[in-house]
Amino acid sequence: MSDSAAFTLDDADVQALRNAVSHVSKIGYCEALVCDRLGLSDLTSLLWRAIPIYRSRQLAERDVLAIAIDLFLLQGLISPDELNKLFDKDTQELFLRAGLISLDEKGRAHARASLFPVGNRLIFSDLAWPMLSQAGYVKAPSDQVMFVGNDSRWLARATVRRPYGAALDLCTGSGIHAILAAFHSQRVVAVDINPRAARCTSFNSQASGAANIEVSVGDLYEPVGEERFDLITANPPFVPSPANLLLFRDGGQSGEDVQSRIIAGLPKHLAKGGIAQIVTEFGEREGEPLSVRLREWLGGAPMDIFILRLREYTGAEYAIGHADGDESYDTFLSSVHDWFDNLNTQKYTRIVSVLLAFQWSDPAESPLTIVEESEPPQRDAGDEIEAAFQVERLLRNHSFREKLIQSRLRLAGPIGFIESWVLGGDIHANTQAKLLGKALPITHLLAPLERAILVMAKESPSVLELLESARGLNLEEEAVLTAIGSVFRRGLVFLTPVHSDP
Ligand SMILES: C[S@@+](CC[C@H](N)C(=O)[O-])C[C@H]1O[C@@H](n2cnc3c(N)ncnc32)[C@H](O)[C@@H]1O
User: Is the pLDDT of residue 368 over 90?
Assistant: First the structure.
């Protein structure tokens, strides 16, 4: 696409750009209000094929927010009057100079970059739909700077947001994760192999006022030498693709070309006490748990791993979703065939979207592997990810059992049950439990004893009281303690020391 933004800016324009972006924020261009205006519960459900519907239904009233959404998110054509309503003349000229918008012969404006609201921050990228009249990216240049996609948002929401010394964002693209980390880290290094992406990240750091980001063009860890980081984030190209067409998307035929090297580099670059978080997809083979591959890439380094499984796709769904060939149905079918063939060659039976987190293990313990399934996070879930590691470590602590006996159980919040029953008997065949109001809505399958403990936890019993009732029912103490540990591990109950009772 010849009409894309250059992502370069004269020094003299930096402050003016920052002011202009702040003006766009002030008119309500933030994630919550844009979602609301488009009638979406989450921006991850924005569909480009529905653009005409959003425009006619949600943006019919042309206030400044509607105009900004149409221009920067939906790639619409804005009339001269609308442009004047959105920006004063100076700002229009700035956006033209910076190559963020263009005017046609009738003075109508269209965007040359997309602008994504991520929480209250704004991130520029190349146009999300470079060929709006046709589906897919087939004709996008291979150095296209990736839009803020669902995977980008999932990682942004999963990132553990505590204060860090140094953060590293690999495969930075638009720089979304580097920009977000800049506001809770002393310094951030952002790396991308694509010079155009590096320019876009620098541009975004200028626009957001984040002055603590160093942007490097390079291959993964190569620009950072031996340095270690407290936070490492990465959204690598991960798609197992029959042909490497797009730098931001394709991870070679296995999909693992880049991600395997990122994980292999963690032992050398993750600081003690730090966390590395990656959003990616993996092809899964029958009988081969993902953790085996991750451990292999870590080369035996003692790291705890949290694998959060978000979505699964069959080979056919994946091939159809990625196939190109807008020219004709035959071309499309032939592309589906190529994609599916490639997955078969890799022996992938399904593809899974995951969020991964890595931390150094406690040196006294063997490395942990935690695997959970959840819907993708709809809001910040960093605390829940951090808590998952902490709870597992607590459970393994030798004094845990002693603490447990002296504890009282409290429900961690309202819990939704979905149950199936066996007809003709009083048996729960299956109970699913979900702690409501969590950013990671994990569904837990409960054993009957775990279910019974949760029901009793409503009354906040002490563990000793629970053991007492269990004895009356001839239940083994060990089984009851294990079941309590299990509902605690899954965050469904809190434990408070009995001696702190009011
Ligand atoms: C999936 S995009 C992610 C962009 C952004 N981090 C996000 O979450 O929206 C992957 C990015 O990785 C970059 N990339 C691909 N191979 C790389 C490598 N070997 N080293 C550094 N960056 C690489 C691509 O240029 C692209 O910008």
Answer: yes
Q: Is the pLDDT of residue 89 over 80?
A: yes
Where would I find the H helices in 240-322? 259-269, 290-298, 315-322
Pocket test for ligand 1, best of 174, 192, 246 (most atoms within 8 A of CB): 192
262 lines ligand 1 (CB under 6 A): no
Q: What is the mean pLDDT of residues 393-405?
A: 90
Q: Is 175 in the pocket of ligand 1 (CB under 6 A)?
A: no
Counting from 1 in the atom list of ligand 1, the atom nearest the Cα of 143 is: 25
Instruction: Report whether pLDDT(347) > 70.
Output: yes
Pairwise CA distance, residues 115 & 93, whole Å = 18
The residue to which tokens 């269209």 are assigned: 110
What is the dotted CATH code of the domain comprising 139-395? Answer: 3.40.50.150
Question: 10 CB contacts (<8 Å, ≥6 apart)?
Answer: 97
* Close Cβ partners of 150 (under 8 Å, ≥ 6 residues apart): 44, 376
Q: Which CATH class is domain 398-500?
A: alpha beta
**DSSP H helical ranges for 227-314:** 259-269, 290-298
The answer, yes or no, to whether any atom of ligand 1 lies below 6 A from the CB of 173, is yes
Residue with tokens 């929401």: 157
Q: Which pLDDT belongs to residue 502?
A: 67
Coil/strand/helix, residue 332: helix
Reported pTM: 0.93
Phi, psi of 204 (to 5 degrees): -65, -35
Per DSSP, the three-state class of 422 is strand
Q: What is the per-residue pLDDT for 427?
A: 72
Coil/strand/helix, residue 154:
helix
Name the 3-class secondary structure at 311.
strand
Torsion sign over Cα 234, 239, 243, 245? negative
Ligand 1: which of 118, 123, 146, 246 to mutate, most ligand atoms within 8 Å of CB?
A: 146
Q: 273, 230 in Cβ contact below 8 A?
A: yes
Per-residue pLDDT, 497: 92
The pLDDT of residue 426 is above 60: yes
265 lines ligand 1 (CB under 6 A): no
Q: Chain-centre distance of CA 467, in angstroms?
A: 41
Q: Is the shortest distance between the CB of 247 and ligand 1 below 6 Å?
A: yes
Cα–Cα distance for residue pair 115/127, rounded to 1 Å: 8
Confidence at residue 1, expressed as pLDDT on a 0 to 100 scale: 40
Domain edges within the chain: 1-133, 139-395, 398-500
3-class SS shares of the chain: helix, strand, coil, % to 5? 40, 25, 35
Q: With a 6 A CB cut-off, is 174 part of the ligand 1 pocket?
A: yes
Beta bridge partners of 430: 420
Contact predicate 352/281, CB 8 Å: yes
Residues 177, 119 contacting (CB under 8 angstroms): no
